[in-house]
Write a structure and sequence with these properties.
Elements: E1 2-6, E2 14-15, E3 18-19, H1 21-37, E4 42-46, H2 57-71, E5 78-81, H3 88-92, H4 95-100, E6 103-106, E7 116-117, E8 123-128, E9 131-135, E10 142-148, H5 153-160, H6 169-184, E11 190-196, E12 199-200, E13 225-226, E14 236-240, E15 246-249, E16 255-257, E17 273-279, E18 287-293, E19 298-304, H7 307-316, E20 320-328, H8 334-343, E21 347-354, H9 373-385, H10 391-406
Helix pairs in contact: 1-2, 5-6, 7-8
């Protein structure tokens, strides 16, 4: 069985004032071409289909056109789950029509997809809350999928818990996953897990997150899920949320973030983006291969000591989006700004790194806008109060960011 794993499309996302829709059209066309050339049997999209709860019309149209092509009238089923940027209700709304095209949407961790059959010989043969079993048109092997769309810790406990408010989220998920695996996942089929959350190896280094995604972690006491929480029956875990392609662990199976198809923040500057091609058969270890994506503009961070040096570089690199820092002992003049913007139409952010030798030592003499929002908050607090914010203030700030994202 050949499976294409992709995630974090963020359709409709803008980078400051720059629309990315044309780049998204190009890279989604490339993903369709990969699915066709590699003759994959099924496509998994692991959340963050859109960039917000109310995506623009052009983003919605692009999404449905793309998944219709990927599904190939049900011959190549597509299974997509909601991420933290998606509205679960919006994701599930077109399900009755999408199902007729071989497209399955899952918005909530406790959603149930009732069994159905299509003329193309695609069948959902068994289902449960957070689980489906597929019989694919050209395969006699059943595909079992444990599905965990994004939900914050409180909602996960509400959807999946037993009423114990003290139960740790990772223990709750591990118990639910194991229960489903024990009931449905024997060695006669292919057994996969798809989830949109933050997963890491216990006692290992924490995977790096893009700036836009940081509030999902450790909000309201939420904890990362560990790779050891994955049931032993699972052969591959298709993850969404982190935008850099990475293998979290190879035990009990490959646990993989496929990456976003485009770089969406300058914390992803100069990253290559991928989709994952997974090959697996019953009772055997899955193999996976990262296929690089070539479409879309690179995001680059550049720092220069002078205007002329910056202009020369900009003219030599026209087809990129740039976060440009100019080191200077005074603020940039209107003439200098005009010169820089005339040299390149892809300057997203222009940062004057101003060093004032006469500034009091207790005050910040420059602002590094390449930092994440939490670091900038800490710097501002130190600037105003000459001390770092305590843990309670940091947690309140994270809660505020998370609430803004949920809205």
């Amino acid at each position: 069985m050949r499976i294409l794993h992709t995630a974090d499309w963020h359709l409709g996302k803008r980078l400051e004032g720059f629309s990315r829709i044309e780049e998204q059209k190009e890279v989604l066309r490339e993903i369709c071409e990969i699915a066709e050339s590699e003759q994959v049997d099924v496509v998994l999209i692991a959340g963050d289909l859109f960039d917000n709860f109310n995506p623009p019309t052009e983003a919605t149209e692009l999404f449905y056109k793309t998944i219709k092509r990927l599904a190939c009238n049900g011959k190549r089923p597509v299974v997509a789950i909601a991420g933290n940027h998606d509205s679960p209700d919006r994701i599930e709304a077109p399900d009755p029509l999408a199902r007729e095209c071989g497209i399955i949407f899952v918005g909530y961790p406790h959603s149930v997809i009732h069994p159905f059959s299509l003329e193309c010989n695609l069948h959902v043969t068994r289902s449960d809350a957070g689980f489906i079993e597929l019989q694919l048109p050209d395969s006699e092997i059943p595909l079992r999928l444990l599905l965990t769309p994004y939900a914050n810790e409180f909602r996960l406990k509400t959807y999946l818990g037993d009423g114990d408010p003290e139960q740790v989220m990772r223990e709750l998920l591990a118990s639910c996953w194991q229960n489903l695996a024990d009931i449905y996942c024997d060695d006669k089929g292919v057994n996969l897990l798809m989830a949109h959350l933050y997963m890491m190896k216990k006692d290992g280094p924490a995977p790096e997150e893009p700036d836009d995604e940081r509030p999902i972690v450790h909000i309201g006491g939420a904890q990362a899920v560990y790779s050891e929480n994955v049931p032993a029956q699972i052969q591959y875990v298709a993850m969404g949320h982190l935008h850099r392609q990475q293998v979290v662990d190879n035990q009990p199976c490959p646990i993989v973030y496929s990456s976003s198809p485009l770089a969406y923040s300058f914390s992803e500057a100069n990253q290559t983006k991928y989709v994952m091609l997974v090959e697996v058969e019953p009772s055997q270890a899955a193999s996976h291969r990262a296929i690089p994506l070539s479409k879309g503009k690179k995001l680059l961070r550049q720092r220069f000591e002078g205007i002329e040096e910056a202009v020369d570089w900009l003219e030599m690199n026209p087809n990129v989006l740039v976060e440009l820092t100019i080191a200077t002992d005074t603020y940039l003049t209107a003439t200098e700004r005009k010169q820089l913007y005339a040299a390149h139409d892809g300057i997203v952010t222009l940062i004057p790194e101003v060093f004032n030798q006469n500034a009091p030592s207790s005050k910040l003499s420059n602002i590094d806008l390449s930092k994440g929002i939490e670091e900038l908050f800490t710097d501002f607090f130190k600037f105003k109060h000459t001390q770092e914010p305590n843990d309670r203030l940091i947690n309140l700030f994270r809660e505020a960011l998370a609430s803004e994202d949920d809205e």
